[in-house]
Amino acid sequence: MSLTHLLPGSLGFGTAPMGNMFRAIPEDEAQATLQAAWDQGIRYYDTAPFYGAGLAEMRLGELLSQQPRDSFVLSTKVGRVIHDEVEDPATRDLGEKGGLFEHGRPNKMTDDYSADATKRSVEDSLKRLNTDRLDIVWVHDIAQDFHGDRWLAQFETARTGAFRVLDDLRDQGVIKAWGLGVNRVEPVELTLALDEPRPDGFLLAGRYTLLDHRQALQRLLPAAQEQGVDMVVGGPYSSGVLAGGTHFEYQEAPAHILETVRRIRELAERHGVSVKAAALQFVLAHPATAAAIPGATRPSRIAEDLGALREEIPAAFWHDLRETGLLDPAAPLPAGA
Question: Looking at the DSSP assignment, which residues form a beta bridge with residue 230?
Fold first, then answer.
């Protein structure tokens, strides 16, 4: 199914922060943020077992279980199984993302893209989310940043395991769509080159943003458009550095990234534009983009995102971004730019 037709709007809510990413979020603050998203009209929610070892799913389930099931679209992910045994979250091997959820639940997590693990993961997520069905399921983090040189072996396990299970679930009408949820373009390109199974879309985090979009424009997005496969953009603010934060790629932003952000902010200020609005409207301008799903940890952020979506940005701003080399000439611009 086309994600554009499935998703209820161009702005969703990414729940990674609800898994205590970077910091321990008090329960009342987490629920107030989720409630603010619902109250302000957000009807697409994305989550994953990985986010705090099930914490984000449980928190999201508290909100959504109070709403009519047909009134929202829900996606979660497979590829990691959560166990009853406990471990020290700070010592988990998360590849390039070490320590990301050290404030989450201590339940042990194992990477497993096999068919049996995929079925178990779906069943466990349904319980944590307190719901009877999922709309979209993404195969999570099957890429170099988490698996290093082992990523192709993990991909092959997923191809013969998770991919086929999700393909069958979609064909049976149990789910409406499936795809990959990753932070790298290579596994999506590899999946699009397969004769079967066929994904409906992909969730690409951090690789189509104002700060990093050139590689995705080369092969991935043209191939996706050719095949009619839609994209959900995760991390439109590049882990927060484009929204006034200090993180890029889930770590402290390096000096060259901070310098690029400074240049973008300088141009934005010259045109009276907020960087957050520019970042959000840029990713939504690509015809392959079905939605963007920024995350939040405070209720006020929801109104900021909605305001960024509506902010008027002069065409001259986009022209200057291109002239200074900050924007690839091939990147589609918002209507009227």
Answer: 201
Q: What is the pTM of this model?
A: 0.96
Catalytic residue among 44, 45, 51, 237: 51
For position 1, what pLDDT does the model report? 65
The residue annotated as part of the active site, out of 77, 97, 176, 276, is 77
Q: Which of 44, 45, 46, 276 is catalytic?
A: 46
Which has the closest alpha carbon to 251: 144, 100, 140? 100
Nearest CA-CA partner of 46 in 29, 34, 36: 34
Residue 51 annotated to the active site: yes
Segment 79-113, tens digit of pLDDT: 999 999 998 888 887 776 667 898 999 999 999 99
Strands 201-205 and 13-14: unpaired
Instruction: Quick: pLDDT tens for 197-210.
Output: 989 999 999 999 99
β pairing state of 251-252 and 247-248: antiparallel
DSSP strands (E only) in 115-245: 136-140, 177-182, 201-205, 230-234
